[in-house]
């Protein structure tokens, strides 16, 4: 009885085990089939690089120094003594601040002389404008009138004397004397007429032009002296630092300006260095010159203002090279970078003459694609291609690309979409 009841249970257990073993075999076959059906891109020997658009930049590094963008020498506008000084060497000044005052004693004398010359020239021009009614012409007219009246009177006497001579009343000698007097007076009349014409000519033509030009010269000289007189007080044309004038080549040291010193016209008084705008000056080798052009963005850093990055652009590139003692005696060219206006906090840290490092952006591409060199392949026809797929779930394919510039991220390529690029298998 007992054996009859247990036998079916044993049979059911063995049957379940066979089903379980069969299921495990089928599951193993499915896993093996799925593994063999996977894309070859995920093979253990392959590597895939995710490529996304990014900003690509090339930089050229130079070393230079910080200088003032504006630097001017203030010279004495006229000769005179330094009356008073309102600043000292090394002092910071604001735009329009009073610097010094020059004595104008000598200039005042020149002004009065110029004014006198101008008044004389004005009188001469006025006389020219009313020349026909002037004194010289009137005098010439009176002389001609007197000569005409004298000749007329003599001619009347001569006519009367001839009639008396014909009657035998007077001698021949009186007739001859009057004839001689008449001839002399005719000559005097002709001369006085010539003098009148000459006097009238003085008021026109070249003489009039000479008078006008002399007046213009006198007015210009007087106005120029007035302009100089207005510059007796020197003011700062911009905010900056007052420095001693630089020594001229071949001359001794420039003495510090003091009240009472005589300054001749054109003598340098101050050197004013601007603080409103600064620039960076460097030199570039001839081999790198082709990479630069005006307007390129530049980032300026330095040990003296560590932690502060200044921005600017190339303002000028020198056209005249200078032989360099470094780098095998090659030629270098000056590069000037205009720095953007500084913030008040930056002004407190930046000093003129500081060394600076210039990172010039020679190439920039927004949303560019760059690949390692080993990701590029060459076809038999000489074209360049990559193994590409948009996502890791798609099949890979060859995509023809055009290599561009070498950038820090690799080589820039064109003609490819973002996605995944196959790299050569890594070594063991």
UniProtKB/TrEMBL annotation:
InterPro entries listed in its UniProt record = UPF0194_transport (IPR050465)
Q: Which domain of life is it from?
A: Bacteria
Coiled-coil annotation: which residues?
A: 175-228
Q: List localization entries.
A: Cell envelope
Q: Which Gene3D superfamilies match?
A: 2.40.30.170, 2.40.50.100
Keywords, A to Z, come to:
Coiled coil
Q: Which GO terms describe its cellular component?
A: cell envelope
Q: Which PANTHER family would you find in this protein's record? A: BLL5650 PROTEIN, EFFLUX SYSTEM COMPONENT YKNX-RELATED
Q: What is this protein called?
A: RND transporter
Q: Which organism is it from?
A: Stutzerimonas kirkiae
Query: What does the record give as the organism's lineage?
Result: Bacteria, Pseudomonadati, Pseudomonadota, Gammaproteobacteria, Pseudomonadales
